[in-house]
Amino acid sequence: MENAARFFLTFLCYSFLGWACECFYCFALDRKWTNRGFLAGPLCPVYGFGALLIYYALRPLHGRVIALFLCGMLLTSVLEYLTSLLLEKLFHMSWWDYSNNKFNLNGRVCLRNSTLFGLLAVALLEWIAPAVNALVALPGPVAVQWTAFALWSVLEADLILTVHAILVLNGKLAQLAQMKKELQTKTAEMRELLKEKIGAPAEARIRTELDAMSARVHAMESAFRFPTRRLIAAFPNMRSLRDSEAMRRIRAALRERTAQRQERRRSGNKK
After folding, report:
1. 97-103: average pLDDT
2. Are 206 and 190 within 8 A, CB to CB?
3. How far apart are the first and last CA of the chain?
4. 95 contacts 87 by C-beta, under 8 angstroms
5. DSSP E strand boundaries for 46-195
6. The dihedral of CA 18, 24, 28, 29: what is its sign?
7. Which residues face 104 on adjacent strands?
8. Which are the contacts of 223, defined by CB distance < 8 A and separation ≥ 6?
9. pLDDT tens per residue across span 216-252
10. Residue pLDDT, tens place only, 127-153
11. pLDDT above 60: residue 103
12. Which residue, among 40, 50, 60, has the nearest Cα to 82 in the 3D structure?
């Protein structure tokens, strides 16, 4: 039990370090701080799995920097590719897309990121792993088990909330697709009726119905709670495999909603 607890804490340490690297790297590119993790907490589990995979699979290469770098590139690229594929199959979403990067493979991995991961693999075995192992060895047997149990509970709750947020997003996308079809049908019906010169009152009624339906669609596109909004912000290239246009409209609606909130806040401060 103690060994399992220390192993779990090691995984969390690597997940946190991966989250920090991801966030600071994206901050350096975008000059904007965003939680770039899959979870709400400061963890990127895929980095935790990747670090443990490198540590146990490539430890015999310790000290052989070139071989470690190349094998680290290959191993982490395979992991990133499979993770992208798995998330896509589970949630019908493409979470990241490197199609605009040079030397990419199906938009799932690219040479730039693979090179960075190779460098991280070298840093992991040469410097990071010894420090993490020393840190995880500090708590006593009882303390490490209780700490692992508490953090496992938090991680489980975070995972449940995140999956729920994804399911909510998928549900909204399905609703929006249905409403979009209804709106298109209504619009086509109105065009046909207008050809028949139905009169101003009937035309006004139909236009009012269309405006009301359009307003409902727009309201639904921005009506997301924080967990779902956080996910959309964390993965700026995320798109739905069922309706990519709906995701574009949702992002636009959320940006508009944020801008309105900021404007109201500025107006309130002036008063």
Report:
1. 89
2. yes
3. 60
4. yes
5. 93-94, 104-105, 109-110
6. positive
7. 110
8. none
9. 777 777 777 788 888 888 888 888 887 777 788 888 8
10. 999 999 999 999 899 999 999 999 999
11. yes
12. 50
More confident residue, 45 or 239: 45
The whole-angstrom separation of Cα 227 and Cα 165 is: 6
Biggest distance spanned by C-alpha atoms of the chain: 84
Please provide the DSSP assignment of 184-198 as one string. Answer: HHHHHHHHHHHHTT-
d(CA 36, CA 13): 17
pLDDT digits (tens, 9 = 90+) for 55-75: 999 999 988 999 999 999 999
| 2 pLDDT tier (thresholds 50, 70, 90) | confident
CB neighbour list of residue 160: distance below 8 Å, 6 or more residues apart: none
Structure tokens at 106: 């199906």
Q: Is 33 in contact with 6 (CB distance < 8 Å)? A: no
227, 157 Cβ separation under 8 angstroms: no
Structure tokens given for 116: 């960075």
Query: For residue 267, is pLDDT > 90?
Result: no
Question: Once rounded to an integer, what is the mean pLDDT over residues 174-198?
Answer: 75
**Could you tell me which residues are beta bridge partners of residue 93?**
240
Euclidean distance between CA atoms 247 and 230, whole angstroms: 14
Distance CA 96, CA 75 (A): 19
Nearest of 105, 226, 215, 86 to residue 168 by alpha carbon: 226
CB contact burial 54-67 (16+ within 10 A = b; e otherwise) = bbeebeebeeeeee
Q: Is the pTM of this model over 0.85?
A: no
Q: Measure the CA–CA gap between 247 and 30, rounded to whole angstroms.
A: 21
The Cα–Cα gap between 16 and 48 comes to 8
